[in-house]
Write the structure tokens for this entry.
Amino acid sequence: MKRKIAIANDHAGTEYKFELMKALAEQCEFQNFGTDETDSVDYPDFVHPLATSVEEGKNELGILICGSGNGVCMTANKHQGIRAALCWNEELGALARQHNNANVICIPARFISFDEARKVVNAFLTEDFEGGRHQRRVDKISC
């Protein structure tokens, strides 16, 4: 069964979004909240609906893509039920799930190649939360 994944982007992440959806099509069913264009847009308009869908359980995990990854990450983390992680290499993608139980990954499209972005997202999607001592820390994140 395919995993239900929310994906969104701003204008800087459009190309990576379509490439990721294509590369992961066999294992994921995507709900696209992002722009499909490259004209300048305001990323919060796409991040908030994605975050809400993950919070409400309509999607298991989320993928956000913008130029630096910072704007989408800050916006997603305003939602109490979201733990968004900015990741730029495979190890960080894995650790975001293993240690932080992140449910949204943020990709900086202007700073990593598509090949690296694919590896980062794949690591994020295939790792599980380790719990244990990490659970105690995750429990202290929300305000």
The mean pLDDT is 97.
